[in-house]
C-alpha cells in the first residue's frame, strides 16, 4: 500500500476546495482527509454530500486563525500535509471590507504556517505545506502576447490580491527562514459545478434561468484566462505529489476570453439547451459602471507545470462551459438553496446532533 498521508485541507467546503476534497477522498482511500472550513457564505457542505460518509474523511467547522483549534487538529490527526485553500476571495467584497481579507488571508495563513513549523519540528520528510494562490497577485497585463510566469514581479491592485500576495510572501519566508517545505501555485480564474453565483459565469447562468438582467462591468473588454475547476483539482493533486519544495507553479487553462464574449457564449448555449428563441437571453445584457481598479487582462503561462510535472488541462473552454451549464440545469435545487440561503442550514442538520 502507498504511504498514508494525513492531509489538512483548509476551505474544503468552498468551490475549488470541495472539488479537491472529493478527488482526494475518492482517489486515495488510504489517506486521511481533514476538511477545516469556517462555513462563511461561500462554504457549502452540500457540495460534499457524496463523500461526507467516507471513512477516510472528517469535517471540522472552524477558523484557520484559531490558534488553539489548528494546534489541536495537528496534534490529534498527526497532519503530514496541508493544502491551504481557505481564503476570502471575491474582489468586490474586498473593496467593501478589506480588513476581513487581511485577517483571514494573511493572519490565518501565518497561523497555519507557525503551527506546521511547531508540529513538524524540523522532521520534514514526507511533509509539505501547499499554498493555493491566484494569478491576481501579478497585477494587470496589457492586451498582447505577454503572460504571467512564475518570475513575474508582484503588482496586486485590489485588497484581495494584496492579501494573497502577502500570504504568498509569508509562505516563501518560512521556506527560506525555517526550511519549512512549501510549494505555491498561482491559478487563473476557475469555473465549473458548485460555483457560488456571485462570480461571472454562475451569475449569468442563474440570471438567465430567472430572466434577470445580466450585469457586465464597463464594456466587458476585460480578459481572463479560464480553467475548469476539475482540471485545477488535478493540478493540485499533481503538485502535492510531484512538486518540488520551494517552487512556484502557475496553473492556467490556455483559455483567454473577454468577459462580454463569455456572456454572449453562455446566452447562446443557454438558449439552445433551454429551447429558447435565438438571442432571447442576450437581450438581458446590461452594462454597469466598472468596478474600481478593475485589472484589464490576466494570462497564465503554464509551461512550467506542463514541462516539469506533465500536467495539462483536459477541458477546453467550450467543453467546460457546456458541462458547467448542464450541471446547473441538472442541479436547480442546489442553486435554489444557495440563492435563498437554505444551504447554510445544512451543517446544523448534519452535525449539531452528532
Fold and architecture overview:
There is one protein chain. This protein has helices at residues 15-27, 67-77, 91-96, 98-120, 159-178, 200-209, 229-242, 259-274, 303-309, 317-330, 332-340, 346-351, and strands at 6-10, 32-37, 57-61, 81-84, 128-134, 182-187, 189-191, 214-217, 223-228, 248-251, 256-258, 285-288. It is an alpha/beta fold and 354 residues long. The protein has a domain at 6-191 and 229-254 and 294-315 and 344-351: NAD(P)-binding Rossmann-like Domain (Rossmann fold), CATH 3.40.50. A 7-stranded parallel sheet has the order 3-2-1-4-5-6-10, sandwiched between helices. A 3-stranded mixed sheet has the order 7-9-11. A two-stranded parallel sheet has the order 8-12. Helix 1 links the parallel strand 1 (6-10) and strand 2. Helix 2 packs parallel to helix 4 and helix 4 packs parallel to helix 5. The longest helix is centred in the N-terminal third of the chain and has 23 residues, at 98-120. The radius of gyration is 20 Å and the shape is globular. The two termini are 32 Å apart.
